[in-house]
């Protein structure tokens, strides 16, 4: 284990009951947000109004705008990081939260409005149907029904990662950069112990695979972002490609973090 | 090798050792990093004094002018130290990230608990921040002296 952690004595039980207005205590929806004040309120209320019962936590990744207050006003619990950690660190905070509070499932929905919360149910159902499945990943490209438009450069990048992962894992991966995912308890334990840093989506697929956990892609619709900016600007995309490629390569050489499947007992 | 170069290299190496020891003495440099610097300085001092050894090394790797071998070795140590700093920086970043996550989660827990129990009065006023800071820095320096 990379992180020695003694959180057994801790409990965030209160989060699962009185303050959260519509609590189910089973599914935690994590919304990582960095300067998303224009879209975060809509995203939070859409999640709270969607048909899947869940608790919503916004991880405010050191935003300098009104993201935190907007999210709080929209009814989410807000965890404010003291400074910007990047998407990986923010999502891992979500995993730590889900782990400490005994959530059975955790979902990630981006704060920019790209993901439609209505599709959460589809992802969640995929996990519930198959207890051996540890993660369901929403894919934009699994079917051609959903028209998703991205710039050529971005599509090319996604294709390249899809291609290399497909070959590294010997299975078809269509949308490795999608952040629209639902994990079960086993995956929560794994990623609470260690989650890739800067651009985690691609690398975490490899981590799951190497740790012997299973995942499946599920077709979901995605929109263009409603506001804010992608952390991957065109100037940074070269760095992104290189960094993720190095991470993938190093990941293949690394020993996986062991998670004991037997350890999990859902707190009901 | 010329005597002048030898004297210069010896002075350089001794200067480095003295500087590192002085920094450790003043607690500006922790022993952990000082060790690598000391190793580098002592190796350079050894080669500056032991000319025959330097000549052997430069011959072995095909350097015709021994003082160049001295520079090459010094440079290798510099690279090694830089790598060491990158490792240290990565580790610090990792630790800082973990601290930030813990603090954020604790703050959230605290805020939610305050929300839940607004009627309860806190009997003891919180210790002023300055006192806490002084306490912790005292403790840190005590550990150093041990």
What does the secondary structure layout of this molecule look like, with pairings?
The complex is a heterodimer of chains A (268) and B (146).
Chain A: H1 13-16, E1 27-33, H2 40-49, E2 55-60, H3 67-73, E3 77-80, H4 87-100, E4 105-108, H5 120-129, E5 135-139, H6 152-169, E6 181-184, H7 185-193, H8 200-210, E7 215-219, H9 234-253
Parallel strand pairs in A: 1-2, 1-4, 2-3, 5-7
Antiparallel strand pairs in A: 4-6, 5-6
Chain B: H1 3-25, H2 31-49, H3 51-61, H4 66-116, H5 129-145
Provide a short characterization of the protein structure.
Chain A is an alpha/beta fold and 268 residues long. Chain A is 38% helix and 13% strand. The two termini of chain A are 27 Å apart.
Give a verbal description of the structure.
The complex is a heterodimer of chains A (about 270) and B (about 150). Chain A has about 270 residues and is α/β, with parallel strands linked by helices. Chain A has one domain (about 25-255): Spore Coat Polysaccharide Biosynthesis Protein SpsA, Chain A (Alpha-Beta Complex), CATH 3.90.550. Chain A is about 40% helix and about 15% strand. Chain A is built from 9 helices and 7 strands; from the N terminus they run H-E-H-E-H-E-H-E-H-E-H-E-H-H-E-H. A 7-stranded mixed beta sheet of chain A has the order 3-2-1-4-6-5-7, with helices on both faces. In chain A, helix 6 (about 150-170) packs parallel to helix 8, helix 6 runs parallel beside helix 9 (about 235-255) and helix 8 (about 200-210) runs parallel beside helix 9 (about 235-255). The longest helix of chain A has 20 residues, at about 235-255. By secondary structure, chain B is an all-alpha fold. Chain B is about 85% helix and about 0% strand. Chain B has 5 helices and no strands. Chain B starts with a helix and ends with a helix. Mean pLDDT of chain B is about 80; it is low at about 130-145. Classes of the chains: A alpha/beta (about 270), B mainly alpha (about 150). Chains A and B meet through strand 3 and helix 4 of A and helix 4 of B.
């Amino acid at each position: 284990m990379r992180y020695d952690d003694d959180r057994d004595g801790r409990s965030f039980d209160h989060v699962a009951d009185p303050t959260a207005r519509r609590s189910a205590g089973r599914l935690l929806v994590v919304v990582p947000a960095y300067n998303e004040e224009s879209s975060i309120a809509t995203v939070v209320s859409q999640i709270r109004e969607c048909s899947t019962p869940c608790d919503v936590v916004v991880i405010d990744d050191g935003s300098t705008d009104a993201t935190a207050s907007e999210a709080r006003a929209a009814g989410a619990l807000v965890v404010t990081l003291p400074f910007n950690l990047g998407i990986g660190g923010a999502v891992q905070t979500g995993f730590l939260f889900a782990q400490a509070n005994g959530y059975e499932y955790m979902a990630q929905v981006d704060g920019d409005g790209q993901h439609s919360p209505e599709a959460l149910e589809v992802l969640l159902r995929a996990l519930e149907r198959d207890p051996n499945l540890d993660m369901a990943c929403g894919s934009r490209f699994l079917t051609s029904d959903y028209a998703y438009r991205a710039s050529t450069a971005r599509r090319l990048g996604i294709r390249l990662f899809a291609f290399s992962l497909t070959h590294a894992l010997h299975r078809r991966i269509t949308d490795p950069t999608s952040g629209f995912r639902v994990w079960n308890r086993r995956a929560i334990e794994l990623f609470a112990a260690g989650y890739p840093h800067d651009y985690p989506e691609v690398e975490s697929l490899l981590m799951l695979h190497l740790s012997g956990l299973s995942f499946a892609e599920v077709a979901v619709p995605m929109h263009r972002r409603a506001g804010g900016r992608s952390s991957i600007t065109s100037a940074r995309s070269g760095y992104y490609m290189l960094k993720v490629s190095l991470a993938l390569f190093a990941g293949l050489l690394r020993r996986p973090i062991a998670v004991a499947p037997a350890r999990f007992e859902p707190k009901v | 090798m010329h005597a002048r170069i030898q004297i210069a290299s010896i002075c350089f190496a001794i200067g480095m050792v003295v500087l590192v020891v002085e920094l450790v003495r003043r607690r500006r440099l922790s022993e952990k990093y000082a060790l690598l610097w000391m190793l580098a300085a002592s190796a350079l001092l050894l080669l500056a004094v032991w000319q025959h050894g330097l000549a052997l090394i430069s011959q072995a790797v095909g350097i015709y002018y021994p003082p160049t071998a001295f520079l090459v070795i010094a440079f290798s140590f510099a690279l090694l130290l830089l790598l060491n700093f990158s490792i240290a920086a990565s580790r610090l970043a990792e630790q800082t990230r973990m601290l930030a996550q813990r603090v954020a989660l604790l703050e959230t827990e605290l805020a939610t608990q305050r929300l839940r129990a607004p009627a309860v009065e806190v009997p003891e006023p919180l210790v002023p921040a300055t006192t806490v800071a002084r306490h912790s820095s005292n403790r840190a320096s005590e550990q150093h002296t041990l």
